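Field log, afternoon session.

UNIT: design team B
ACTIVITY: writing a sequence onto a fixed backbone
BACKBONE:
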């Protein structure tokens, strides 16, 4: 049993625990305030999903940025830093730059990290922290917490995640030569994250796009033996158009977070089939810590 396999399988319980953190919600931005949420890699994609959800539900203007490119000259009421390790250099530099100027909230996996003492309001999720380099549980648990803070009932998503873990993965999803992940609205960030999981763990060629933009060029690579995987309801005729290329269209019927769990399982199974270590992919570390000079 790898750490990744164990952490992946623990997600339904972790989501339930995160959704029940009612006291911690008080630290999140107030309704109607202007917010930016930042992260790197996986955390950036989760930030995209939260930003879309917060705006859709009328809670206020919300932007998501990769930490190194966040335009902090803009006027935000609160900046949320999302990071599993709390040690990522770009996040720490950004939060330090904002100290005394903008209220900052940290959603952090490691409660001993330096970010805990840098932000104005730390929210720690130690039960969701991980040992595998490849993130699964922390990212989705953070999003479960954030979805619940917006008034969502996560019971259906948690049930879907259990289904995603208990249902066999079709062979065509395990043997594809290429994957393209698509999503609309808040599911777009999760599509980007699914593509990253297969690249990280299994060194597979993956791409990801907002689904309505897929026809504007990327559909050119669809072909027999390749998979287009849509998270959430797909646009009209998309499945038909993909079928015409000879590729397979996998239209997700589960909550998009649960579809991500299915994609995580594909990444794990493909890594194991190729003799790769999914806990420690090549060229990757748990946190990117850059030289100070």
């Amino acid at each position: 049993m790898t750490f990744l396999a164990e952490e992946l399988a623990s997600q339904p319980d972790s989501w339930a625990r995160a959704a029940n953190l009612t006291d911690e919600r008080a630290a999140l931005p107030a309704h109607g305030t202007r917010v930016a949420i930042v992260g790197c890699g996986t955390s950036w994609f989760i930030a995209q999903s939260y930003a879309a959800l917060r705006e859709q539900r009328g809670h206020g203007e919300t932007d998501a940025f990769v930490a190194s490119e966040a335009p902090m000259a803009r006027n935000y009421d609160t900046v949320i830093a999302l990071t599993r390790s709390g040690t990522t250099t770009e996040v720490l530099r950004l939060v330090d730059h904002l100290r005394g100027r903008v209220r900052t909230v940290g959603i952090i996996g490691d409660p001993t990290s330096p970010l805990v003492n840098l932000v104005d309001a730390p929210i720690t999720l130690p039960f969701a922290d991980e040992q595998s380099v490849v993130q699964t549980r922390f990212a989705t648990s953070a999003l479960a917490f954030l979805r619940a803070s917006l008034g969502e009932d996560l019971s259906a998503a948690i049930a879907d995640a259990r289904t995603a873990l208990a249902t066999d993965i079709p062979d065509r999803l395990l043997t594809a030569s290429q994957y393209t992940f698509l999503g609309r609205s808040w599911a777009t960030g999760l599509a980007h994250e699914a593509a990253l999981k297969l690249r990280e763990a299994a060194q597979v060629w993956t791409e990801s796009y907002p689904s309505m933009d897929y026809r504007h060029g990327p559909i050119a690579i669809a072909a027999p033996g390749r998979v287009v995987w849509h998270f959430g309801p797909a646009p009209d005729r998309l499945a038909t158009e993909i079928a015409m290329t000879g590729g397979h269209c996998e239209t997700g019927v589960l909550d998009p977070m649960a579809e991500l769990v299915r994609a995580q399982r594909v990444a794990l199974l493909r890594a194991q089939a190729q003799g790769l270590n999914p806990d420690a992919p090549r060229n990757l570390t748990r946190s990117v810590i850059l030289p100070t000079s």
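LOG NOTE: Residues 256-273 form the longest helix (18 residues).
NEXT ACTIVITY: expression trials, pending approval
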